[in-house]
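Forum > Structural Biology > Help requests

Title: Can anyone predict the 3D structure of Rad51-like C-terminal domain-containing protein?

Hi all, first post here. I have the sequence for Rad51-like C-terminal domain-containing protein but no way to get a structure on my laptop. I'd be grateful if someone could post the structure tokens.
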Amino acid sequence: MNINQETCLQLLGRLQKRPSLTGLDPNLFPNGPKPKEIIELTGEAGTGKTLLLLEFIKKSILPIRYNEFQIDGLEADVVYLNCDQHFNMFKLVSLMEESDVIDAIINVSLKRLTVFNIFDSETMINTFHLLNRLLSMNSNISLILIDSISAYYWQDTMVRGIRKMDLYVLTILKLLHKSIKDFPVTVIFTRPQYFQTKSGVECSPIYDLSKINTSIHLQQRFREDTKCNIAEVRTASKLVVLYYEIVQNGVVWLK
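Reply #1:
Sure, ran it for you. Structure tokens for Rad51-like C-terminal domain-containing protein below:
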């Protein structure tokens, strides 16, 4: 009886329409992100990876409207897998306050965020399995964030024997795919700059939650003798270079 009931919930979760993430960040994703898209976010410490994730959360969970106020959020639920223990609730609230959002709106919005604190590889895999039921029960979830996907690499190499870093990432994504493949959600994960081989991973044009579709590489370079932040956004068809600044109220994209 329980198995049949869960199957019905899963079917309902697949058929129900989920909030669109279009507008999450028009600079990084002019026409997206798309359902079933996997996005990787890489970069050295201090380039703003975790800050960008907080920006994504803020935009996602804020309402479209609140009473007579136009907020321009996406009103979507977000699941955050906090593997590196970098998640900062106070910073998230601060970013929302910087947008002149009142406390009542912040309180309503935070109910759309679910955070799982992950401390080892086994817990991460168990959480992947839990996502299947969570997505079945909540059709408002559109975005899953993993920070970072490489957190338990050294722990896992002792068990699985996978040494190649890119292969390890694809293995973790394969495990995640088994649990969420039926649901039109978007996955964004981070990994450190050093955690990749020289060849890197090719971006796939197929959106099915099995391979990386978009790779965003954050780095610092010199532009006209001035150090600046650069985001290289790579897809299967093109490469776009964007410049940005990290300020108190978040990431600001430059012309």
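DSSP finds seven helices and eleven strands in the chain. The mean pLDDT is 88.
Shout if anything looks off.
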